């Protein structure tokens, strides 16, 4: 039986194959960290592989968080974190760290988000 092009099993690749066996990123990147493609990334990402090219395209002209990158590319968060860390190290992506938030501020933010979701 031949798989259809829409069959998600046809696109399955083991995560360690995407990251060449690495499970730890070169640097820790927060899930909410904001990333943008650099000028260098616009020029060189097409030579960096399909997944990195997709990430560079996604972040070109539109800031994305690590969580959004993982969701849009349908890659596991750990795989996305390793690829993004590589791209930051190579100068293909610019990393904009999110300001440190105290636990009290974080709880207030989460409560506001939850309240907004309930209103939807």
Automatic annotation (TrEMBL):
Superkingdom classification of source: Bacteria
Protein name, entry field: DUF742 domain-containing protein
The organism of origin for this protein: Rugosimonospora africana
